[in-house]
Amino acid sequence: MGKDSIQLKNPTILDKMLDMSHEQLVFCSDHVLGLKAIISIHNTVLGPAMGGTRMWNYASETAAIEDALRLSRGMTYKNSIAGLNIGGGKAVIIGDAKKIKGEKLMRRFGKFINGLGGQYWTAEDVNMTIKDMEYIRMETPFVAGLSEKNGGSGDPSPVTAYGVYCAMKACAKTVYGSDTLAGKKILVQGLGNVGSYLIELLVRDKARVLVSDIFDDKIKAITERFNVTVVALGDVYSAEVDIYAPCALGATINSQTIPMMNCKIITGGANNQLHDETLHSKMLNDKGILYGPDFLVNSGGIINVYFEQQGNYNKAKVLEKTEDIYKMTSDVINLAFINQITTHQAALNIAMKRIEDFSRVKSPTFK
Ligand code: NAD
Q1: Which residue ranges have their beta carbon within 6 Å of ligand 1?
Q2: Helix (H) or strand (E) holding 279
């Protein structure tokens, strides 16, 4: 069949989609621009799928697909538990953002989103900026996270960080009997958009903040602004702290790191923090570490872009809804305690119930 033939070498992708209840996985490529992207639509029962685009230099295509599948499923849970009428989706672009990202690439990607006719709406995620969203907007209306001057809601990261902060206080209330963070030792891993806004809130509250990042320039930028302690990469998981706040990439909570951990609470902005959701939420439980479920804790950003997507952006209402994360986190902790399940499972039960209730009156079904 020659070199242009296409052979489906890995049928397990479809098996995975069935297993994780995904609706669509869309592969996009442009050989001139070198664009390689994947749009994953997990569930559209509550509305069109929505979730940010991440650009990352993945080690392999398999890793990118896995990330897209997991992240989009996480968005389904996140959008549901936040009470938003949108489904779960996510996109990943494979490549080094510093090298290949630019107007042409983003606009080409925007055309692919447009081709889905509104089934998927995008916004910012790792390595994406407001400017990138504006390039996408030149080709499609199905994008949020635009600049305020262009009628958008701006960078969602400060709102994400605020939601993480609210959840952190709810967890502190459970563990310490008070939700004040003053004097608490809090380690923020990842000093990007979310991490740096979170640090600002924690420093304001007089917490004792420790920080870590893989890039020296990120550490320099934070240490120039705040009085924080830098932790070496190898010491992050064993550091004796009250709260560990993962704000980098996912899967940092795993079978290698949990045995090393010396914290009482985990609440952070990163998506997919648990490498294996069932196993590692249980391991945290057994170790007496209170885990604030990532998709609940970090839902502030999607709340922010949702109001924009709905065409009725109002900052005060966004912050009010984001503050609900405090109560939701307390409710999840109580539910977990009453039912003797993990906080991850308790949050999942709430998210899935809302979708199931909806799918009784609307197909398709959700497993
Ligand atoms: P970002 O790219 O601005 O920041 C990520 C930071 O993590 C970077 O500084 C990077 O150098 C650092 N990092 C990467 N690997 C690391 C490691 N092993 N140890 C320490 N630092 C490491 O991204 P962001 O927008 O701040 O998002 C951070 C996380 O929060 C991501 O998982 C993202 O999906 C999630 N999230 C972000 C938002 C948002 O509003 N931006 C909303 C919800 C969830």
Answers
A1: 124-127, 156-157, 160, 189-195, 212-215, 218, 247-250, 269-271, 298, 301
A2: helix 277-286
Distance from the alpha carbon of residue 268 to the mean position of ligand 1, in angstroms: 10
Q: Which helix (H) or strand (E) holds 316?
A: helix 315-339
Q: How far is CA 21 from CA 69, 85, 122, 347, in A?
A: 10, 19, 20, 18
Q: What distance in Å separates the CA atoms of residue 24 and residue 232, rounded to the nearest whole number?
A: 41
Tokens found for residue 33 = 């621009």
Q: Where in the chain is the domain with CATH 3.40.50.720?
A: 157-300+326-352
φ/ψ of residue 110, rounded to 5: -60, -35
CATH 3.40.50.720 for domain 157-300+326-352, yes or no, is yes
Number of H helices, E strands in the chain: 13, 12
**Hey, what are 179's tokens?**
């939700």
Mutate to test the pocket of ligand 1, among 96, 215, 247, 303 (most ligand atoms within 8 A of CB): 247
Nearest CA to ligand 1 atom 33: 270
Element (H, E) at 63: helix 61-81
Measured in Å, residue 213 CA sits from the centre of ligand 1 at 10
Whole-angstrom Cα distance, residue 269 to residue 248? Answer: 8
The pLDDT tens digits for 49-107 are 999 999 999 999 999 999 999 999 999 999 999 999 999 999 999 999 999 999 999 99
Bridge partners (DSSP) listed for residue 240: 262
Give the Å distance between the CA of 113 and the centre of ligand 1: 24
User: What is the Cα–Cα distance from 136 to 146, expressed in whole angstroms?
Assistant: 10
Which ranges in the chain are annotated with CATH 3.40.50.10860? 13-76+86-150
At the topology level, CATH places domain 13-76+86-150 in Rossmann fold (3.40.50)
Model pTM above 0.85: yes
